[in-house]
Amino acid sequence: MELISPQERADLVNRISREALHVEMRDNYGIDAELFANWEAGDREEVPRVLRPWCDRVRAGVAEGKAYRRVCVVSEPLSAYQRWCFEATNGLKVEAGEDLRWVPRRLTSTLSLPGNDFWLLDGETVVFNVFDGTDKRAEIQLYRDPAIVKHCADAFSALWEHAIPHRDYQPA
């Protein structure tokens, strides 16, 4: 295991040659409090601005033949953060080409999942995002061990089988 910086993680994701698979399993993430408060107050303009760089990268990658798939494991009813994510996905991430799906947490009880969110990059590299008790990122771990890569690939596949495409998911 190697600890890496947020910039190193971004560089790895940006340099994929085939696919980036992402699993998110938390109901809350530490985000900019002002951005979130503005969204809750009805400001729908800032979220697209904040997400534009990611969406531009995805759009360019998809044009090059790369795939971006994300599974969000969520409790229902959705947390305020996950409602924000669901809305932000509408017309932004999906239109950019990211295949985003939702899995209600109640469907995951019998699945073998890693303890942290992760990126699986080109089937060779796993990057775990480890969070603390205040929903802030505590560290980012990089693994290339084939057994860990296989575990994450299997976990992603199991989640994908239960996942509901964004266009079909009706948040509770």
Low-confidence stretches: none
Helix- and strand-based class? alpha+beta
The tally of helices reads: 5
| Number of structural domains | 1
Overall 3D shape: globular
Distance between the termini: 38 Å
CATH superfamily membership, which one?
Endonuclease Chain A
Output the CATH topology. Endonuclease, Chain A
Encode the helix/strand succession as letters: EHEHHEHEEEEHE
List the helices and strands and how they pair.
Blueprint lengths: L1 E3 L1 H9 L4 E6 L8 H8 L5 H18 L3 E8 L5 H17 L2 E6 L12 E5 L3 E7 L5 E7 L2 H17 L1 E2 L7
InterPro entries: DUF6879
Organism: Acrocarpospora macrocephala
Protein name: DUF6879 domain-containing protein
Quick description:
This protein is an alpha+beta fold and 172 residues long. It has helices at residues 6-14, 33-40, 46-63, 80-96, 146-162; strands spanning 2-4, 19-24, 67-74, 99-104, 117-121, 125-131, 137-143, 164-165.
